[in-house]
Design brief:
Strand content: 15-25%
CATH architecture of the largest domain: Super Roll
Structural class: alpha+beta
Radius of gyration: 25 Å
CATH class of the largest domain: Alpha Beta
Helix content: 25-40%
Shape: globular
Number of domains: 2
Number of strands: 15
């Protein structure tokens, strides 16, 4: 039988479909971070530090004071590369071998699209994982067959603090004192205020529980809006002058376990707006079948003669970068003290 022509399998159409696939909302960094392109599979970026120096007075008609450039350093890293493929289900292969009706073609395209969506979801999960790793200071991939070297984003040791008292036993006042100290630390080093807090429901519950421990009188400190918002969305709007984001995105490990992109008891305070301190770099497509000079995701499908079947492949070069690490404070475990 002749192989039916499936429009979705045409390279241009297939890649157009991938461009319109949306990233799930729970992959918050993949959805929100700006993207830029690199023509080569590595990237060099500047790490910018803030300055607290005060200008000196001068007099007219005299030479200006020579001031050194603000603290900068550069970092270069290879982009992370992923290339995965999968075979279609046997029923799909059967549909592709039949010169069938329009409904057969539609069912075949639906099955193909489902496989492409699955590949795309795996790549999106990988990007989200890498972004949260970078936001914690070091990008690493677990496993014995890892081909990516750890990437250190240059966080100062002071930007990876510990609480004064573990938040599992701390009072509300002690937790507030920790957050105030970490915010002032960032304002001192980065010269910008922290605006957002990122954590899991378990972490934010530790804050809420502290208000209601013996003698704290939570209702006297938290506003009615905060309490209502916590019970409806598990966030504390405006607490400590921050926008609180609860991150519960999960992924499956190779061992069959489920893990959080942002682990319980990890707290990240950021300002990701000023100067766009974090971006995702997309690298060049390495496949010969891709258009010359293209960057971003690339997908293709082809027929294997022996054994007969059809396969789909997706590849992607990317790297999260952080140019202003001083605008980030990471507490790896709010229950542990140094």
């Amino acid at each position: 039988m002749a192989v039916v022509n499936i429009p979705l399998l045409e390279p241009i159409r297939l890649n157009e479909v991938v461009e319109f696939l949306t990233t799930p909302e729970n992959l918050v960094l993949s959805n929100s971070l700006p993207k830029l392109s690199s023509p080569v599979p590595f990237y060099t970026w500047e790490i910018i530090r803030g300055s607290r120096m005060v200008a000196k007075p001068n007099v007219p008609n005299s030479e200006a004071h020579i001031i050194p450039r603000r603290g900068r350093s550069s970092q270069t890293a290879a982009l992370v590369y992923t290339r995965e493929k999968k075979e279609f289900e046997p029923t799909t292969t059967m549909w592709l071998r039949q010169a069938g009706t329009l409904s057969d073609i539609q069912r075949a395209e639906e099955a193909i699209l489902a496989e492409i969506q699955d590949l795309n979801m795996r790549v999106d999960n990988m990007v989200e994982y890498a972004c949260w790793q970078a936001l914690q200071g070091v990008l690493t991939f677990p496993g014995p067959d890892v081909v990516v070297s750890p990437i250190d984003y240059g966080f100062l040791p002071s930007h990876k603090p510990f609480p004064g008292v573990g938040w599992d036993t701390a009072t509300a006042s002690q937790i507030a004192a920790d957050i105030i100290a970490w915010k002032r630390l960032a304002e001192r080093d980065a010269r910008v205020p922290l605006t957002d807090a990122w954590c899991s429901t378990v972490t934010i519950q530790r804050i809420f529980d502290a208000w209601f421990r013996a003698g704290e009188g939570g209702g006297m400190i938290l506003s009615d809006r905060m309490i209502d918002q916590y019970y409806s969305t598990f966030t504390l709007p405006g607490f400590a002058g921050l926008n609180w984001h609860v991150v519960e995105g999960q992924y499956d490990t190779d061992a069959g376990d489920t893990a959080l992109f942002l682990p319980d008891d990890t707290l990240i305070l950021t300002n990701l707006t000023y100067g766009q301190p974090m971006k995702i770099v997309e690298g060049p497509t390495a496949d010969f079948g891709a258009p010359q000079g293209s960057t971003g995701k690339f997908v293709k499908s082809w027929e294997e003669p022996d054994p007969s079947g059809r396969q789909a492949l997706m590849e992607y070069y990317f790297l999260p970068i952080i140019t202003r690490p001083d605008q980030i404070v990471v507490v790896n475990d709010v229950t542990a003290t140094s």
